[in-house]
Amino acid sequence: MTPFFDIAFRDTLTRLIHWRRDVRAFRKDPVPDDILRRCLELAHHAPSVGYSQPWRFIRVQDPERMERVIASFERANAEALAMTADEDKGLYARLKLEGLQDAPVQLAVFCDEKTRKGRGLGALTMPETRAYSVVCAIHTLWLTLRSHGLGMGWVSILEPEEVAKACDAPDNWRFIAWLCIGWPEKEESPVPELEKAGWESRLPFDEVWKTL
Amino acid sequence: MTPFFDIAFRDTLTRLIHWRRDVRAFRKDPVPDDILRRCLELAHHAPSVGYSQPWRFIRVQDPERMERVIASFERANAEALAMTADEDKGLYARLKLEGLQDAPVQLAVFCDEKTRKGRGLGALTMPETRAYSVVCAIHTLWLTLRSHGLGMGWVSILEPEEVAKACDAPDNWRFIAWLCIGWPEKEESPVPELEKAGWESRLPFDEVWKTL
After folding, report:
1. Of the candidates A77, A51, A60, which has an alpha carbon nearest to the alpha carbon of residue A169?
2. What is the number of CB-based contacts under 8 A between chain A and chain B?
3. Looking at beta carbons, which residues of chain A come within 8 Å of B56?
4. Does B9 reside within a domain?
5. Residue B41 falls inside a structural domain
6. Which member of A79, A104, A107, B105 has the lowest number of beta carbons within 10 Å of its beta carbon?
7. Chain-chain contact of A58 with B212 (C-beta, under 8 angstroms)
8. pLDDT tens per residue across span B115-157
């Protein structure tokens, strides 16, 4: 019963990984609930330290909560622009960095740092692995959404405490990511937006890898 | 030219996600270099904050370095066993938690916290997103290895500073994960080892998800 993964599947998986993008421009069309749920259920099958499953997803629809999050982005982004080197400021200001106002699905993702699930296994010397487990769930969500033609963007230009308050998150929940999800407005591309915009280029593979 | 992902691909991707496992028992057979490299090149296409690509992979083959890492695991694991509740100690001690001595490929993964790539974009209020980017690369590696029939195990029962020293990691590199990679010894299963062993069970999906 063990599934076999053939060359055709691996080729398509390669294309999925190459064509996954951080999407910032979305059409307004709704995302079917069943697709969103199916992708989140797959995210729930991500690896987690000690099988702790510490990911907590909140879909935010309430307009007042969204306003607080958008205001947080605007403050954090103004601060980031101010900190950007003078010669980069013009380009930075032109980048579209989020789909907070466009994407039909807005998700806040937290890590339950005090979950008893997993009984602490694997997290004693490296408690940060709980947050890393949540990131594995987020990346699973990203790939599965893309396999349905949906785009996702990860917004990190936010004040974590302010977002946690806007979501009434318990004290033991760490804010990990804000995700904007919807149908991409622009043509798809295997080239990251920040590369197209001239902000950054891909590192040669041999610079990230060595043997000792 | 945009790739289209059909139902057959999505079904197989679902099986890949369900059957990915944290593998701790490996056959000694070598892993072909070209497969390992292809999977790492796909990991290098993971999302990263500001396109910073902060992942750094070191394949450790030197026996003295491996001995230091294994000794670190043994200390951290003894400490973890001591901290485990009395009623769980017997089960904890019986769990096989790593393939440090078996797996033919041993990888240390770091995050370059001071990389200039990405010019800091997206990481001002949440610098931890650099480490999260590395985790996205690790999870990409996990899924692609599995699509070749290879298994991977993530070891976190380690002392991060000791592993960094064993790998001569620069001061600005943060240790993220130790990965054991090889051909799984045991039969594959969609059920996590820790569930089979009676350590933990899957949370109902509706406990990790809500709308506000």
Report:
1. A60
2. 274
3. 208-209
4. no
5. yes
6. A79
7. yes
8. 999 999 999 999 999 999 999 999 999 999 999 999 999 999 9
Give the CATH number, domain containing residue B69: 3.40.109.10
The SS3 of residue B56 is strand
Mean pLDDT to the nearest integer, A95-110: 95
Contact A100, A69 (CB under 8 A): yes
pLDDT mean across residues, chain A: 95
Q: What is the mean pLDDT of chain B?
A: 95
Host domain of residue B57: 22-185
The count of other CB atoms within 10 Å of the CB of residue A51 is 23
Query: Mutation test of the interface with chain A: which of B23, B209, B211, choosing the one with the most A Cβ atoms within 10 A?
Result: B209
> What would the 3-class secondary structure string for B90-152 be?
HHHHHCCCCCCCCCCEEEEEEEECCCCHHHHCCCCCCCCHHHHHHHHHHHHHHHHHHHCCCEE
Residue B162 covered by a domain: yes
Token pair 């610098």 in the structure block, residue:
B127
Residue A57, φ and ψ in degrees, nearest 5: -105, 130
DSSP at B109: E
Chain B neighbors of A139, CB-CB under 8 A: 46-47, 135-136, 139-140
| Cβ contact, residue pair A156, B49, below 8 Å | yes
Cβ-Cβ contacts under 8 Å, A50 against chain B:
194, 199-200
Q: Which residue blocks in A30-184 are alpha helix, DSSP H?
A: 33-43, 63-83, 86-94, 129-147, 160-166
For range A98-108, the mean pLDDT: 96
- What pLDDT shows up at residue B51? 97
Structural domain contains residue A111:
yes
Nearest to B140 among A3, A17, A44 (CB): A17
